[in-house]
Amino acid sequence: MSVLWYSGPPILDDVSIQLAPSRILGIVGPNGSGKSTLLKCIDKIIKPNHGSVLLDRREIMKMSRMEVAKNIGYVQQTISRGFPTSVFDMSRQS
């Protein structure tokens, strides 16, 4: 994967990671260094401007959302709701 930017200087440039099955990897770095951007690229939330993300030698952008979800889990730190209703509110209406 190479060169991903929002505006301004590149966030990720010439990144390459290969992970062995059943291993745990920690990604650490200062704020704004590209950790979340990298994870979003790996989980098909953001498409890299150049290069590709491979999962079991298959391009992740060519995989369905269901195929990706069977292999990768991603939980955002913040969640934006489409509407201001909680699960509790919905369960009371049933």
Features:
94 residues; mainly alpha; Rossmann fold; two-stranded antiparallel ribbon; 3 helices
How many DSSP-defined strands?
A: 2
Through-space gap between termini: 46 Å
Q: Mind telling me the CATH class?
A: Alpha Beta
Catalogue the unreliable spans. Answer: none
Radius of gyration: 16 Å
What can be said about the biggest beta sheet? 2 strands, antiparallel
Under the CATH scheme, which architecture would be assigned?
A: 3-Layer(aba) Sandwich
Derived structural class: mainly alpha
Rounded average pLDDT:
81
CATH topology: Rossmann fold
* Oligomeric grouping of the chains: single chain
- What's the CATH H-level homologous superfamily? P-loop containing nucleotide triphosphate hydrolases
Shape: globular
Helix-strand blueprint:
Blueprint: H1 35-42, E1 54-55, E2 58-59, H2 65-71, H3 87-93
Antiparallel strand pairs: 1-2
Overall description:
This protein is mainly alpha-helical and 94 residues long. The chain has one domain (1-94): Rossmann fold (3-Layer(aba) Sandwich). Helices cover 23% and strands 4% of the residues. The protein has helices spanning 35-42, 65-71, 87-93; strands spanning 54-55, 58-59. A hairpin with a 2-residue loop joins strand 1 (54-55) and strand 2.
Quick gist of this model?
By secondary structure, the chain is mainly alpha-helical. Helix content is 23%, strand content 4%.
